[in-house]
């Protein structure tokens, strides 16, 4: 068999190593209760609303509160299989609510678009809504939804509110604070938690919607817990404090609860808007130092903010910090090495590659000695690379679409969308990621970008990441996105959309690129034809750079 495997490896980009360790076949609350028994007095969750407004819960406190809350909800009619909508920014209440609903076997729909909240709750036939009410807009939305409970065949029958206006209850709704206080001394729920199976639906997370209407992706308890295979990249354990600013209604932020439940890690988070929209670098580092953070998630937008921060060197003196995890989009290796120089105690930066729908796929550990941008496919996952137009396997090292077979992928992948679920897989069960990349025979995977981002200029397929990596070397460039724009002769041409340092200008960048990019056999170089300066780049709902919007703005500016 080994000789047969070796023979095909030279023909096809395929890789698979069986997972040695077994999958954890448990529910979220089962994993948490075991951990809480081991570390009862350790902080489980810490949340900062502002620099000074800090809230925390130990494992013992969180377990007790989640059990009493589950009993309160059970008495209000919540049961296994109920669809419960969840709309909230990061807050301390997120933790006991999630565990309480897990104990009851409810399926949580993580909704983050307030403008569509009412329609989404009704469309997905949710039986209840957990709603954070913290400002006037959220109060208006609450009133709108409450006015439709109950109505006709609408199954929505209960709204639990929390937050600054959490006591402003309308109709048959309930205040989370009152639910917790009302059941503080009750006995544990009558076997409801034992009736929940690891293969039961647990959470529905939604895509960013950058390619259309956001799709709801169903995760079971089993699939959710085993996402921890990716999160081990953070090297978090029971002696760790993990910071993650990602919204907890997204899987990338909800992983805090996963790490807390599975590894005994202290989960530390803040209001995401302070980091994403307001770029509060000093606020984040004040917290990292104060809480002796050992592990942190840093997304691309924060890395850019940090590297361009005027006092970055002094703020990065966090003696306790050892590991940084990043991902979400193609990362520039030189940028990551600059990040390493700011943190003298950091052991490594880990880049993760995966998605909510495809599961964890590959990892790369970046140190001072790293010379490649390739990631290693993780054990237990099958990966192959195919020609995008024909779906035929490509030879090792050739570019194509990355396809995955992962036992963690739920076959009814997209909630209430059977057609999309079936279309996501080919006849052999391969999930097509839509990402373009190359892979070596030993599972070293390199991701170039999205299939839709690929630029077809004349007879050559250009991957934006290749051009962006070169332009990013220019010290006058803060950030760069390369998009394709229409061209009569070549079909598409390259347009560099850049955010410049105050000392730089696009005319100087254009001259620099003409010298930097060599001319190919077709007489063309990869130096962009157009250069446009931006003050900032729009982000998707999940914090990724929104290439589609950038291209649209470029077309407007160029009048193409």
Give a structural overview.
It is built from 19 helices and 26 strands. It is globular, with a radius of gyration of 24 Å. With 560 residues, it is of the alpha/beta class. The strands form 4 sheets. The chain has a 14-stranded mixed sheet with strand order 1-18-19-20-21-17-16-15-14-13-11-12-2-3, sandwiched between helices. A 7-stranded mixed sheet has the order 8-7-6-4-5-9-10, with helices on both faces. It folds into 3 domains: 28-226, Rossmann fold; 238-355 and 373-386 and 396-450, 3-Layer(aba) Sandwich (Rossmann fold); 454-558, 2-Layer Sandwich (GMP Synthetase, Chain A, domain 3). 30% of the residues lie in helices and 25% in strands.
Summarize the structure.
Residues 34-413 form the AMP-dependent synthetase/ligase domain. With 560 residues, the protein is α/β, with parallel strands linked by helices. 30% of the residues lie in helices and 25% in strands.
Give the tags.
14-stranded mixed sheet; seven-stranded mixed sheet; 560 residues; GMP Synthetase, Chain A, domain 3; 19 helices; alpha/beta; Rossmann fold; single chain
How is this fold's topology laid out?
Elements: H1 2-9, E1 14-15, H2 28-38, E2 43-48, E3 54-58, H3 59-75, E4 83-87, H4 94-104, E5 107-110, H5 117-123, E6 128-132, H6 136-146, E7 158-162, E8 174-175, H7 176-182, E9 201-206, E10 216-220, H8 221-226, H9 228-231, E11 241-243, H10 251-263, E12 266-270, H11 272-276, H12 281-290, E13 295-297, H13 300-307, H14 312-315, E14 323-327, H15 333-342, E15 348-355, E16 359-366, E17 375-377, E18 382-386, E19 400-405, H16 418-423, E20 431-439, E21 444-450, E22 455-457, E23 460-462, H17 464-471, E24 477-487, E25 491-500, H18 506-516, E26 530-533, H19 547-558
Parallel strand pairs: 2-12, 4-5, 4-6, 5-9, 6-7, 7-8, 11-12, 11-13, 13-14, 14-15, 25-26
Antiparallel strand pairs: 1-18, 2-3, 9-10, 15-16, 16-17, 17-21, 18-19, 19-20, 20-21, 22-23, 24-25
Helix pairs in contact: 2-4, 2-10, 3-4, 3-7
């Amino acid at each position: 068999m080994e000789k047969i495997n070796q023979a095909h490896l030279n023909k096809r980009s395929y890789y698979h190593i069986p997972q040695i360790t077994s999958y954890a076949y448990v529910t979220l609350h089962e994993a948490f209760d075991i951990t809480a028994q081991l570390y009862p007095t350790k902080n489980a969750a810490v949340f900062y609303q502002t620099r000074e407004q800090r809230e925390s819960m130990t494992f013992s406190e969180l377990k007790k509160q989640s059990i009493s809350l589950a009993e309160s909800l059970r008495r209000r009619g919540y049961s296994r299989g109920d669809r419960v909508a969840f709309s909230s920014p990061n807050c301390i209440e997120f933790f006991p609510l999630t565990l309480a609903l897990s104990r009851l076997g409810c399926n949580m729909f993580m909704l983050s678009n307030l403008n569509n909240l009412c329609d989404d709750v009704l469309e997905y036939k949710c039986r209840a809504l957990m709603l954070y009410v913290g400002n006037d807009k959220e109060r208006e939305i609450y009133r709108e939804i409450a006015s439709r409970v109950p109505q006709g065949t609408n199954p929505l029958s209960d709204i639990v509110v929390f937050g600054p206006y959490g006591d402003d209850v309308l109709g048959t709704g309930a205040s989370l604070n009152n639910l917790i206080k009302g059941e503080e001394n009750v006995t544990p729920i009558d076997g409801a938690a034992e009736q929940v199976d690891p293969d039961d639906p647990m959470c529905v997370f939604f895509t960013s919607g950058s390619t259309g209407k956001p799709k709801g992706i169903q995760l079971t308890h089993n699939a959710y817990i085993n996402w921890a295979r990716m999160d081990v990249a953070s090297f978090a354990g029971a002696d760790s404090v993990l910071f993650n600013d990602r919204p907890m209604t997204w899987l990338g932020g909800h992983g805090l609860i996963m790490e807390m439940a599975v590894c005994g890690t202290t989960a530390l988070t803040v209001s995401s808007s302070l980091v994403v929209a307001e770029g509060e670098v000093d606020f984040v580092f004040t917290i990292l130092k104060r809480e002796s953070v050992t592990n942190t998630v840093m997304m691309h937008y924060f890395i850019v903010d940090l590297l361009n921060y005027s006092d970055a060197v002094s703020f990065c003196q966090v003696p306790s910090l050892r590991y940084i995890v990043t991902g979400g989009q193609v990362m520039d290796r030189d940028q990551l090495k600059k990040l390493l120089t700011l943190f003298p105690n950091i052991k490594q930066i880990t880049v993760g590659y995966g998605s909510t729908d495809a599961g964890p796929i590959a990892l790369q550990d970046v140190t001072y000695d790293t010379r490649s941008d390739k990631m290693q496919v993780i054990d237990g996952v099958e990966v192959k690379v195919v020609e995008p137009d024909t779906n035929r396997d490509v030879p090792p090292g050739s570019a194509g679409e990355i396809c995955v077979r992962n036992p963690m992928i739920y076959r009814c992948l997209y909630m209430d969308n059977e057609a999309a679920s079936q279309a996501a897989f080919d006849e052999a069960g391969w999930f097509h990621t839509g990402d373009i990349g190359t892979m070596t025979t030993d599972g070293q995977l390199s991701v170039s970008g999205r299939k839709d981002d690929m630029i077809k200029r004349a007879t050559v397929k250009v991957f934006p990441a290749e051009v962006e990596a070169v332009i990013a070397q220019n010290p006058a460039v803060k950030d760069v996105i390369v998009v394709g724009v229409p061209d009569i002769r070549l079909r598409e041409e390259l347009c560099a959309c850049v955010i410049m340092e105050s000392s730089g200008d696009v005319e100087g960048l254009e001259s620099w690129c003409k010298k930097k990019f060599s001319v190919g056999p077709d007489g063309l170089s990869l130096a962009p034809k157009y250069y446009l300066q931006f003050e900032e780049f729009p982000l998707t709902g999940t914090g990724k750079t929104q290439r589609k919007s950038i291209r649209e703005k470029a077309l407007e500016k160029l009048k193409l």
